[in-house]
Amino acid sequence: MSKSEIRNPKSAIELTRRRLLGRGATGLGVAALSTLLASESRAAMSASSPTRNAIGGLNDLPHYAAKAKRVIYMIQNGAPSHADLFDFKPKLYEWHGRQIPDEVVAGKRFSTMTGGQKERPVLAPITKFARYGESGATVCNFLPQTASVADDLCFIKSMHTTQVNHAPAITFFLTGAEQAGRPAMGAWLTYGLGNPADDLPGYVVMTSRDKEASCGQIFYDFYWGSGFLPSKYQGVQFRGTGDPVLYLSNPEGMSRSVRRGILDDLAKLNEMKLADVGDPEIATRISQYEMAYKMQASVPDLTDFSDEPQHILDMYGPDVKRQGSYAYNCLMARRLAERGVRFVQLMHAGWDQHRNLNTQLKIQCEDTDAPSAALVKDLKQRGLLEDTLVIWGGEFGRTPFLQGKIENTKQWGRDHHPYAFTMWMAGGGIKPGTTYGESDEFAHNAVVNPVHVHDFQATVLHLMGIDHERLTFKFQGRRFRLTDVHGHVVNDILA
After folding, report:
1. What is the pTM assigned to this prediction?
2. Does residue 280 share a domain with residue 160?
3. Are residues 325 and 391 in the same domain?
4. Domain harbouring 80, CATH code
5. What percent of the chain has pLDDT over 90?
6. What is the pLDDT of residues 315-339, one digit of tens each?
7. Fewest CB atoms within 10 Å of the CB: 69, 105, 129, 260?
8. What is the pairing mode between strands 397-398 and 434-436?
């Protein structure tokens, strides 16, 4: 008791009452809060973990017969130049070096690299175009292998987005929002449909970059995050060096049987904790421990290419055995598809050609052309293409006008361009040998059958048997979905 309390007994009594009530409130409050939170946690787990089938998918999915069982998404970070690769426009040759008409670019927003550029001279393609296959698709001479499978592809030439910078644009394509924090497409699909692969993750990510390191794109973890979904649905990144997945190897001196015993004991402890507090992340921990144990046996076999015929390796190109290369990742994607992995996300950086279009575009095409086409051919000859949806494309296109000065040919480049660009899709219910949509005569704006990012996402989900408006997750009082409150299925590209 303090001196003031001794001098003033009444004060001491009042303080004692305050202390009693404070301590009592704290103790009772903590107990009540603990009970309340545990109850809410169990309720949340129940609400966010509806009844599931044998492979972990929601029991009410698919909503209708799926055309595709799995997705391989080859994301070309940095944005390939549609005007140089696929979208042939004679007008660009006619207007080369002349100012692009004001009415074409009026009101458009560009990155800070050309936002204040007063002169915007049209830049003709630095490549040559030809028509290929029975479909007559226009493909440039930098992509001969892609041209060879043109009749298996559907080119969408009217893609458009809202973002002019890389990270928000990639995030928009993958999560349906420009800001980080939402679940990626692969997380949505494994949450809704489950994982048919017993000994591999349902969502696998691999990254690569150009050998010249010409482009500074960063691979952020939220590109394959689970957002507000349980973390068991986030993508598992296979590394480009060393062990594909960290911590798969047992510590020195630990046998597999000892590891099994430790995991069994950990599972029992985690199950007790799960029953006590109801946190769904504890269930994730249990399942991920088990998956890691299974991957100790499955991953070495997955990454062993010794059973691949030489002609298959040759088809993917000379880099196919270099771990971490785009070619290696493409072959890995086929092997993952064979083993039932639901969503494979390949991310390759190197297309951001602001000042080096004349040199780097050809190199980038040489590195990615054969592996991309080989993946389509390989899946097709194995009977996997018909139920595997293959996607190739960047986060936006590149401007049909020049970044910089026309007389400085060594530093020709193109800026970011969200208003029209080209992607291609194959297999998995896509109509082959087709071209959908058009940009204007300057390859600047999507003018015929424009396809928005949310339309693309709705179409992917549709091919997987999902109504994009019905696959939702309640978070912070709102039901979220991949397509937000937008999106229409592009029925004209469906087989």
Report:
1. 0.88
2. no
3. yes
4. 3.40.720
5. 74
6. 999 999 999 999 999 999 999 999 9
7. 260
8. unpaired
